[in-house]
Sequence to fold (282 residues):
Amino acid sequence: MELNTTWLGRAIEMALEEDVGLGDVTTQATVPVDAEGTGRMWAKEPGVIAGLEVAAAVFEWLSPEVEFIPLVEEGASVEAGDSLATIEGDLRAILTGERTALNFIQRLSGVATQTSGLVTAIAGTGVQVIDTRKTTPGLRMLEKYAVSLGGGANHRWALDSGVLIKDNHIIAAGGVTQALEAARATAPHSLSLEIECKELIQVQEAIDAGADIVMLDNMRGDILREALKTVNGQCKVEVSGGITLENIREVALPGVNWISVGALTHSVKAIDISLDISEVSS
Fold:
């Protein structure tokens, strides 16, 4: 997945506006205007790195005189103490952008790290780990980017990029069959029709009504196996609901195509990353 540079610019502008306000009064008071320096960005704990490109863009936004030199690739696994990048040039810009750059890379690396753990847990099954729309408002592109760097795949981008009929849609439409028939009659023909099923009877109804994908929500054990037996290859299958590192292998069964995990983005632990100034000149 490539980052949209126009959107990225807007995200960085908003983040810096939020953090800098009318100006970095501390840096302006303590750092000479012509001071230059070198900083080292490094990992304080193991993880999968995502967001180097974003961090570089933060410093570039503040000053073209700052050079951001990555020392690892995006998606690389690192250990505590590993250097991630060197930042050289305008010291005022480096110090002003430090927190914003770290906020981005710490959170995105957390997303990539958590994704990588789940992907590793089901390696060899042929099942893909995918994200959801449970993203931080305004950061969806970046968080989905981090999921891809962690080895996961992206579910629909937004409400206009896929038909996903959930429980409330089913209630509003009057049932599984009615919801699928209405969607087929009005949705663009290029979009797959996916429907959430919470009960076995809904799975059969969804297949009979021509669903392209069924989402088996919070199904486990014998119920999940029975649902997969009902599907029997007649459509694609997504499993969702309460997925953790401890239980993901249990649901990565033959017949499952995707496992969607909201926790990839809605409750991720950021990776601890630091930036230290090592040289100062003027």
User: Anything to note?
Assistant: The chain has a mean pLDDT of 95. The radius of gyration is 23 Å. The chain has two domains: 5-119+269-281, 122-266. Residues 130 and 153 are 5 Å apart (CA to CA).
